[in-house]
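Input/output pair, single chain:
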Amino acid sequence: MESLYLIILIFFIIIFITPLGFRIKFFYDVKKNCGAISIKLWFIWIKKIKLKIKGKKIFLIEKHKNSEIEIELNEPQIRFLRFFGSEVKDKVKIRSVMAHSKVGLDNPMFAGLFSSAVSDFILSYFAFVKNKRPSACFRLTNYTNFYAFDFIIGCCSRFSLSILDVVYSFAMSVLRTGKDRILEENMGAN
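Output:
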């Protein structure tokens, strides 16, 4: 019976530290002010969400429930997300990133210039990440619409991350946010 408990314990430890393969797809259309995010773990869809941005608020709409969640970006949330991003970014193993853009303006010359600037910005970001993650694969597909206004950005990313890394990063972010808030209150009191 003790060996059964040991096997169960080892099974959960292996699941806890094994990197899980995720795929995230994101796109946003500036002209229509709508976008979507979908998250997939191996072959299982975890979440499909539509999004809209109004000022400093992001509206998330779940596809099947037709419920709308309003997220207002204020300083404590941004601070927590910044800390969480800095903790988890070194633990993520990026496999591939495919970016897609469709850019256009009414004037063909300005459309070409703007499309080139967008692709240069994306490629420079890819070069920055490639220096940090040499094993990652990057690809950009850029379409230019010369006679109509379009600005659509999309991204499909494959990466792996273990549950232990997420839990550790979340705990450290909560601690850093709390410590930062206490320091801020002490500085305000003096």
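The two ends are 61 Å apart (CA to CA). Residues 38 and 48 are 4 Å apart (CA to CA).
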